[in-house]
Amino acid sequence: MKHTLSVLVKNRPGVLARVSGLFSRRGYNIDSLSVGLTQNPDVSRMTIVVAGDDHVVEQVVKQLNKLIDVIKVLDLREGESVNRELALIKVEAEPKTRSEIMQIATIFRARIVDVGARTLVIEVTGDDSKIDAMEQLLRRFGIKEMVRTGRASMLRGTKGTE
To answer: pLDDT tens digit string along 80-98?
Structure first.
């Protein structure tokens, strides 16, 4: 089972290395990691997706809370949070297949952000399953390159992580 951890940390050099080092030393694999500033420039938010049962994630949370630069750790449960990811997909687009690719992009509410002689770059945002589904449909045209940002998550409603 995958867990999404929202980790508020002090915005200092080396914090990312200390957090990722903790995962590495304990033998936990990070499936996805995104980091960015919060509304407070002294605080950054790390959204970490890690696979494991509840016991494993509980141990990870306890270890994270021991780090000096960590302010708060939350395990965001499915349904309680909004999850999004961004992907850029460069796909082969010969003239005879270009319109079909553009229709797929429209269905997924994606945007064409670059047009080349034989390629299109498509920007798509959404949850993991939406991006996985679009990637699967575009594979038959030939994906030349793809980059995904990693999950960004936020609690729903009036609850906050700060």
So the answer is: 889 999 999 999 999 999 9
